[in-house]
Each structure stands twice: as C-alpha cells, then as structure tokens.
Amino acid sequence: MLLVRVVREHFSKIKSSEKMRCPHRGNLITSEEAVTAIEYALLGALIAVVIVSAVTLVGSKTLDLWGLVSRCVEAAASGVGSCP
User: How confident is the model at residue 78 (pLDDT cuts 50, 70, 90)?
Assistant: First the structure.
C-alpha cells in the first residue's frame, strides 16, 4: 500500500504532458503518427495471417491432389486397381 501511494504521489507531481513522453521519440502515446503506425502494424499482421491461412489451405488441397495422381499412376503402371 505504501508503494502504491508513493508512486501515485510521484506521478501526480509530474505534468501530464511529461507522463507520456518518451525521451527518444517525443510524445508517442498521443501523437497521430504513432496511432497510424499501430494501425498499419495491426493491418499488416492481419494480412499476414490471411496469407498464411490461404497458403496452408491451398497447400493441403494440392498435396491431396498430388497424392491422388500418384495413386492413379501407380495403379495404371501395375495394372492393379483403378483410378477414381
């Protein structure tokens, strides 16, 4: 409890404009450039997830198709069985 009170007192003495200030980049939390960058990062992550999902789905379907082709070629070569 004492630690919480000390931290609150410390932050209450600091100006609100200084609370969110990063010493290297300026005011990152409230700047519109930072919000835009975060939005682009989230959009890029969403696009990456969609691409990975699509490639995985197409890849598994392609693998199934090549498995069918392989079985048909083996059946035709051996003369045993038939191809669906």
Answer: confident
Single pTM value for the model: 0.47
Tokens (6 digits) for 24: 């290297």
Same domain, 60 and 80: yes
Tally of domains within the chain: 2
Please, are residues 22 and 28 in contact by the beta-carbon 8 Å criterion? yes
- In angstroms, rounded to a whole number, what is the distance separating the alpha carbons of residues 67 and 72? 9
Q: What is the pLDDT of residues 20-31, one digit of tens each?
A: 555 555 555 556
Q: Pick from 17, 34, 16: which is nearest to 25 by CA? A: 34
